[in-house]
Amino acid sequence: MTIRFYSSLALLTLIIFAACQQQSGSRKKNKARDTTHYTKQEYIEQTIDSNYVNNFLQSHTSYDAYDEYIRNFYRKRDYHFAWINKDGLTEQAGNFINMMKNDAAYGIKDSSLMNPDLQRLTDTLLVSDVGLKAGDTAVPRIEMLLTAQFFAYGNKVWGGLTADSAKDLEWFIPRKKIDMESLLDSMVNKKNNAFEDDEPVNRQYIMLRQQLKKLAKIESSVKWDSIRTTQKSFKKGDSAEVIAAVKARLEAYGDLPGTDTSKRFNAALDSALRNFQLRMGLKEDGLITKGVLDALNTPVQDRIQKILVNMERLRWVPIEPTTDYILVNIPQFKMHVYDKGKLSWSCNVVVGKPGANTVIFTKDLRYVVFSPYWNVPPGILAGEVLPGLKRSGSGYLARQNMEIVGASGKVIAPGSINFARYSGANFPYIVRQKPGGKNSLGKVKFLFPNEYNIYLHDTPARYLFGENKRSFSHGCIRVAEPKHLAEWLLRGDSAWTEKKIDEALNGNKEKYVTIKEKVPVFIVYFTAFVDSDGRLNFRDDVYGHDKKLAASLFGK
């Protein structure tokens, strides 16, 4: 795996690591120092011989991918140490070592995250009362191992799989860019803060890693036998052995406080079950059902693996933007609207059914289209509309409130067309559904132009938003609160009052509105995430993307 080092960029397509100002004033050495990337702070007094750096890299081929970056790092700091001073390991060296050890303890089982030689040397040093002695051969070795390991660790934990691998996994959101050299200089020079404070990762990544610690503890301390019953369901007021087992499992997960071992289905269990169902994306009815038991019986190790899969995805995205944006999480069937980086509101959505997957990508929302026409896409034209036209022609068009237009936009009489001559591939006209109550796009659509022909829109099939799993569309995203979204997007334009928006929604003529400031739309795929209330959530792998990514990360 090769590491990616790039110049800084910003927000959810990028991340900024600011280059620090140049240092002026006298130096203890006359040699000019390249301060292109580095801080004003004084370097550690000791220096490492450049020949030692060369010899180290020649003898440690596992770091070949980072060879030039390591050499460049030391050249730009005049070969001053980064991790060791006259008193021994710096505070930041200890912080970095602890972070690597914690990752292993919390479930990130990867031998490349902690070099065994480095661990042995630093463990010996940390328990020694003597510390480092002048001329100790371990000093430059530890220094080089820490620097090389920083690049290897950053590649694995902050960078993730290569960009090509992500595209193979159908992830088309641009990857974050990291200037690792500047990041290393910044992190080793900061005082009195943990390394985690400066990690170039999305906040969700950090929260999921915290959840790994909890699940690792559960896995090591709780016996995870399957909970079984022949009864279809249990409700509040029932009594059974299985109810006591369910309570114990919910207590282990933290959904049910206390240590209630009774067999009675009480109000506390009802509340805990609803919380668990919400976290698992199940119907929130407070019943013990097969679905609930299946979720409770899922091995903790499977949950840990799902978190690791989603942490890998989070390595690809930068920190949260501080601007307005819209995020659609496909497996959650939810749209989240952010106002200046803060969650403003959320609503249910319907996404593409398996086989007609909604694509994972990002584009800027530019247009609100009220009372839209719906141009029938080729797949639906061939599979549904043309067969209907061949059966009943104008009758089919009338029932579907459709019309046929040519390339110029002129309406064409259906009687003038011999539909039997055409398939979806060679049909030379556009079939479109006119504005109105039967329009498949409902009363409004929201366009963020893209090569996938995916957009947000209203729908007349409102009942689908009440379904628990909402993958029914042909790829586009149906929004449960389209008027709310239109009002939010146009809230900065005083001309668009609620009355005017209502009139546009219920008009019989299509109307395009260009929004004043483009709003990024991110369509993502996270099956494990921490919600705004701090609860760990899991969702089904709707399109099988988890399975593919897990195979890349862990093998088959």
The helix content is 25-40%
- Helix/strand/pairing class, anyone? alpha+beta
Number of strand segments: 17
Round the Cα radius of gyration to an integer and report it: 29 Å
Count the helices. How many? 17
Strand residues, percent: 5-15%
Which strand order spans the largest sheet, edge to edge or round the barrel?
3-4-5-14-12-11-6-15
Instruction: Describe the sheet with the most strands.
Output: 8 strands, mixed, barrel
Shape: globular
Describe the 3D structure.
The protein is α+β, with helices and mostly antiparallel strands and 556 residues long. It has helices spanning 50-59, 67-76, 91-105, 116-127, 138-159, 163-168, 180-189, 203-221, 241-253, 267-280, 290-297, 300-315, 378-392, 394-400, 482-489, 498-505, 545-554; strands at residues 84-85, 88-89, 325-329, 334-339, 342-352, 361-370, 374-375, 402-405, 411-412, 430-433, 444-447, 456-457, 471-473, 477-479, 511-524, 528-530, 536-538. Helix content is 37%, strand content 14%. The strands form four sheets. The chain has an eight-stranded mixed beta barrel with strand order 3-4-5-14-12-11-6-15. The chain has a four-stranded antiparallel sheet with strand order 7-10-8-9. A two-stranded antiparallel sheet has the order 1-2. α8 (203-221) runs antiparallel to α12 and α12 crosses α17 (545-554). The longest helix has 22 residues, at 138-159. It is globular and about 95 Å long. Mean pLDDT is 86; it is low at 1-40.
